[in-house]
Amino acid sequence: MTPQDIYLLSPEISLAGLALTIVILDVFIKNRLLVQSTIGIGLLVPVIFSILLWNGIGIETSLDSNTQTFGVFNTLVVDKFTLLFKFMFLGILSIVIMSSMSYVHRFERTKIEYFSLLIFSTVGMMLLSSTRELVTIYIALELTALPMAALIAISGNKLSSEAGIKFLILSAISSALLLYGMVWVYGLTGTTDVAEIFLSIEEMSRQNGSVSMIAFGNYGLLLGVIFIIAGFGFKISSVPFHMWVPDVYEGAPTPITAFLSVASKAAGFAVILRVFYGSFSSDVLSIEWSMLFAIMAVLSMVIGNFVAIAQKNIKRLLAYSTIAHAGYIMMGLTVVSGRMEGVALEGPSSVVFYLIGYAATNLAAFVAVIAVSNKTGSDLIEDFSGIAKRSPIIAICLAVALISLTGIPPTVGFMAKLNVFNSALNGGLWWLVLAGTISSVVSAYYYLRIIKVMYLSDPLENAPIKLDPLTGIALMVTVSAVVVFGLYPTPVIKAAHIAVEFLLI
């Protein structure tokens, strides 16, 4: 590795160094406050490195609107698509750590291991958004998933342990499917590089005299693409690869559930955009896989929203909610196909904007749930009865988050859905928009039911619920983002559009 390679990896290296530092400090220094302060200061370092890379400082080629920088034997790419996701992961990590400080007393002996594993999983996600080579993608996925399995089971109780084992087993199966699909693609194209796979498919098409002869006259390539979709489908929690989500969300510590619901989904969609837009975006090929994503989108929206209605545990409800939102996001993904004239960037940019808005919204909801469950010790929806009387701030923040998840203006959730619906309409997928609209109406029932319980039901007890400072800051930051990005989404939409331009290079 060259010094340039190390610099390109500096956000990941500094974050991994932070995880190792807090483990070592915990061995020699028993002052937990000092260790926690180190985490807060240490998170600034990868942010600074990411800002420097965004501005092209210290690299040989400036990251302007049409430039990418490659490193580590061309397996790593640094561009504004990559860096936007790194900022997102670091922001999500910061919010989850702040909301965890009042939660980790439940597993005091493994508190530092909890934070270090959380950071290591984030390193894997950041690498995942940077990779442009199939083997490296697989390694980054495992670096993401293995710490996550340990975090899900870290509480040590029966429910948490079962959730951790279920996640580990199903994650291994999905990784095997993904790897099998990659093997098929490598065997047929002779390369694992994302860009070279596209060129190889184009060359095969020319040799056969017609693009249609490769599109899926070559059934081996189709099989490889299907297995890759199956592997990634688990990561983004879409139907029919969603069976792990409700049990894992319920059994995991609530901050880890929050992290899993937004960070893992963002990482999955980042690598899907990179791989499918970079490797399989020829006109006829993309028609095939985009239709698969469209079918998965409809199933995810319908099953996620209808099953959520019957849930009595708020974490299971939000689990089915995240399945439904995977469907909304895939609506934008279907427009990636074929680099259609005039809408080539609309699909992927709407996906990126939706991920940012969904991250802010879902984190706000989960931080509010953490604040309530810390007091009640339960995650049942009935325990939110009369929360508006016990803590007006938590109630209004959770209500805003739920309104945003429904897609009601003036929240970022409304703008995000408007973007993906518009991109799907411009791509001629009106039936997909119709399914999304009907599903959104259905979702209003269970989201607004929670608001009804908070404001119209009598409280189970009268003791007030007080926010600790860090949880309060996390809640205010996320809710502010939900409202501000809903009223003025232009900067985020522009950033998403700039980022996805690199997918066309």
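Next protein, fold it too.
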Amino acid sequence: MNEKSLGQRIIYYRKMAGMRQNELAAQIGITSSSLNYYEKDKREPNVSTLIKLAKVLNITGDRLLGIDRPESSAHDANELSLLRNCRQLNDLGIQKLLQYATDLIGNSAYKK
């Protein structure tokens, strides 16, 4: 992912979070057209906007900027998919998902 432009990384992580452009823009307090310019690499977001993007997308600033190190606690595609799905659940669904995870971890057939 590091060879991608900032705009491409924003698109990638927005889609991994299951968000539309207008949803992400609203959550970080900018217009959809501003986000569109960032995603097309026509403009660069300021530091405050970069911080908001990273927080809403649940990634590190380093990851967003493409300077993360391999040994960092970076999310792989499966982890991001789980996170995206988890965000769609209510509190009861989250508790059920956590119970499933605990049950799977307790079964040696599913552990690494």
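About the second fold: The chain has two domains: 1-71, 76-112.
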